[in-house]
Structures are given as C-alpha cells and as structure tokens.
Amino acid sequence: MRKIVLLSVFVFLFQLFVLAQGSGKNSPIIYTFGYNDIPDGCNLPLIGFVNTAHGDQKSVHIGFINTNTGSLTGAQIGFVNTVNDAMNGIQVAFINSIGDNAQGFQVGFVNAIGNRMQGGQIGFINAVRKMEGFQVGFFNATENLKGFQVGFINGTMRTMCAQIGFTNSTKILSGIQIGFINTVETVAHGVPVGFLSFVHHGGFQAFELSFNEMYPYNASCKIGMDRFYTFPMVSYNPKLVDPFAIGFGAGSNLPMNEEVYFNPELSSQTILSSDFQQISSITLNFGHAFTENLDFLAGPSVVWNRTTTNEPLFSIHDWNIDSNNRIHAGFRLALRYRL
User: Which residues of the chain register pLDDT less than 70?
Assistant: First the structure.
C-alpha cells in the first residue's frame, strides 16, 4: 500500500511537470515541490526546497532558498531569501536581502536592503541605505534614519528621531540618542543622553576642580552639550579614614547673558570603604566666564548622605531623617577649563 501511494505521488508530480512545459509567457514552469521555477508574471505560490521566480511576481514563496529576480509583492519565508529588485511585503529567514526599495518588514539574523525601506527590520544585523521606520537588532546601520534604532551598536549618517543602544553614532543628529556611549559629529536639533556623549562640533567638554564642605579636592571631566552633559568624578578628603569617593553626575549650562550662566547639577558618589556610604547632591551653581576657556563657579547645594553606620560621616550640622539617612546644606566652589 505504501509503495502504491509513493508511486501515485511520483506520477502526479511527473505529470504536473510535463503539463507545465510551455505554459508560461517566456519559459516553462517547473513545479516539483523540490525545485520550483516560474517565469515573469506567473504569480503561483511556491512551496519547495529551492524556489526561483523570474521577473515581477505577486506571490508567496516558502522554501529553504527563495529567489526572485525582479520585484515581489507578497512574502518569502525560508532560510535564505533574495529579491533582486523592489519588494512590498515580508521576508522571514536567516538571511534576507532586497536589492532596491522595500515596504514591509524583514525578520532574520541578517537583513539587508540596497536602497530605501519603509517599515522595519528585526534581526542580529540590519543594514539599509535609507530607513523610514525602525531597526531592532544587535548591529543596526543605515545612511539616513527617519525613525528609530534599538540595538547594541547603532550607526547612521543622519538621524531624525532616536537611537537607543549601548553605542550610538551619527554624523548629524536631529532627535535624541540614549546610550552608554554616544558619538555625534554635529547636532542640528536634539540632544545625546548617555554615560559619555562626544559631540565634535558644538559640544561641551571641560575639566573641573572643585571644593565643598565634604571633600576639599574634587576632579571631574564633563562631556556632552551645554544643554545636557554628564561627568565622572573622583573626590579626596585626607581627614577621613576612607578618604576616596567616586561618582557620576549630570548637569546643564543655561546662559543668563554673555558671561554668566546658571549651572544646576545632580550627582551621586560612593565612598570607597567596607561600609556602604552614598552621597547624593543637588547643586545650584552660577558660573562666570573669565576667558574663552576658564570659568569660575559657585553655588549652594543640598546633600543626602546614606550610610549603614549610625555615626555621621562628616562633622557638619545636618537633619536626621533616621539613623542611616541625613540631609545637610552646603556650598561649592569650582574652576572649570573648557577644552
């Protein structure tokens, strides 16, 4: 019985192949479910191990390797999908590639489009010349982005909307970057937000030495833009048993006139000791530019000290919230050198 069924299937497929010869516009149709080949405009759905469609098609191709030599409206689902011209639809595979414009979505490990994409790419590696939509993956690359990228590494020549990732890079930013490291050549509109943001033209980079009632020696490196920057910092107080503290902060330079600006900052520091000691502060600085590169700053601060011990860390009048949390007012002086 089993042999009869297999023989019947073989005969059916053989007859289908023979009957299909010469039925296409310019070339025969081969439809064997193992290897399928259809001419331009045939528009048959293809299900097989290897599917090849010539010219322009409106169809669905499901197989291990799917190739369309012209344009495709529909879908390709397989291990390797290729459309040589434009596509309107969806590709799902380990490797997806489209030679020209695309409207729709690509989902795979590697997604590549030769020209413009209106839609989205989701994969480990996404690459397109012009994106109007989104890219979500480990590595995202496009020449012109009008939408957003979410990934570990994001790279564009021009960004209009958002990049969200560990490392973001763009030549011209018109939107926002959110990441650990942001690199921008020029900011047209918007702001980079991250641990470190490098803006080559119109950015803010400065080295600062400061004094406050807790630590007489503080050094920080400030980087980003005047409207928003971040800074790592290190502090030293030789009178303490644990004299060093490290921290991180963010701030903004808001101009009041050509020489004076308002400089609010928020920072948090951890004391390098066996006991947990955390210092968080809000400082309201006012800065004065003495020269093009050198500024003097001063302002009041409010400090919150969290500790696991019941003894106060600093000999400063404070307000006890409880045995482990204290708040006190302070003051800060600083010299800032703009790089």
Answer: 1-27, 309-323
Whether the Cβ atoms of residue 38 and residue 22 lie closer than 8 Å to each other: no
All structural domains of the chain: 2-100 (no CATH), 203-338 (2.40.160.20)
- Please write the tens of the pLDDT for every residue from 189-248: 889 998 999 999 889 999 999 999 889 999 999 999 999 999 999 999 998 888 999 999
What is the spatial distance between Cα 195 and Cα 190, in angstroms, rounded to a whole number?
A: 17
Identify the pLDDT of residue 27: 66
What are the backbone angles phi and psi of residue 240, rounded to the nearest 5°? -90, 155
Of the candidates 235, 290, 288, the residue with the CA atom closest to the CA atom of residue 263: 288
* Contact by Cβ (8 Å): 114, 127: no
Name the phi and psi angles at 12, rounded to 5. Answer: -60, -45
In angstroms, the Cα distances linking 115 to 103, 109, 142 are: 11, 19, 10
Q: What is the rounded (10 degree) CA torsion for 114, 188, 179, 282? A: -170
Which two three-digit tokens encode residue 95? 């490797």
β-pair partners for 162: 148, 176
Nearest of 303, 316, 182 to residue 247 by alpha carbon: 303
C-beta of residue 298 within 8 angstroms of C-beta of residue 283: no
Contact 274, 259 (CB under 8 A): no
Whose tokens are 């703009």? That residue is 338
Question: DSSP letter string over 44-86?
Answer: --EEEEEEEE-S-EEEEEEEEEEEESS-EEEEEEEEEEEESS-
Average pLDDT of the residues of the chain:
88
Closest Cα partner for 173 from 137, 200, 153?
Answer: 200
Distance CA 66, CA 93 (A): 10
Q: What is the per-residue pLDDT for 265?
A: 97
- In angstroms, the CA 135 to CA 155 distance is 11
pLDDT at 254: 96
What does the alpha-carbon distance between residue 183 and residue 197 come to, in Å, rounded to a whole number? 6
The answer to whether residues 61 and 78 touch, using CB atoms and an 8 Å cutoff, is yes
